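[Solved] Which block belongs to which protein?

Original post:
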Amino acid sequence: MEDRAASAEDHTQTPQLRRRLGRADLRAVPEARKALRELLRHWGRPGRSDIAELLTSELVTNAIVHTDREAVLTATVGPRGLRVEVRDFVARRPRLRVPNADDGTNGRGLVLVQSLADDWGVRAHGVGKAVWFELDAGAA
């Protein structure tokens, strides 16, 4: 597992979190949230980091549960805001589906991402794909 954040002395490096997610390791979800919380402790308006944690946990959970492979989480704080990307090694694209009451808690992850992120998407990435979202630090 790798974590990187810019130090106060190195202003040229963009604050970033990079974490390898183990195959079928659901412990990675709270660990990713905790690492993201640390990265974002001084970022954005109140509530923005909470939204970032929620959406990150959705993408991490999807990658772990639906691919049965390792994945890589990258979160980058830049001048335009936060970009979080979860790359996995399965080409099958996720489906945005409208959950129904019979699904219990399943099927809501991408609906949350679509509803709460300022922008999001899926892009092919060599062997696999990357699902990403962006949040503006100042948005309400």
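(Second protein starts here: sequence line, then its structure tokens.)
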Amino acid sequence: MRLSAILTPAALYRHFDDLGDIVRDTAGDIVAELTDQLRDAIEGECATDFAARLIARSRVFRCWALAHGQKFRLLLGTPAVAAGVAHTDVTAEWVRELAAVRGAEHMRLWAARPLSDPGR
């Protein structure tokens, strides 16, 4: 049985205060799903092959975005006015989560191959 057949839109508000809370909660689940896939793609590559790890992450993001258009638009699209400031919260959360995935890889790369300081 489909959930939509037993749950009315009004029933959602028994669990959420407003549309903003629904957007935040939904987006949080989407961000967790995507970042898990990005981490899995990175970890599936050789730990010392930084190019392969970066490319794998990019491919997963692209494939995910193409396969999940509505989720992609919720995270990165034009916000619905009715959601209020929830879109700002969603964007802030998304940026933090993506930075955590990307930042960890960039720090590993930096530790393995630090750039020389041309001013020294």
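Accepted answer:
You had them paired correctly. Confirming on the second one: The two ends are 68 Å apart (CA to CA).
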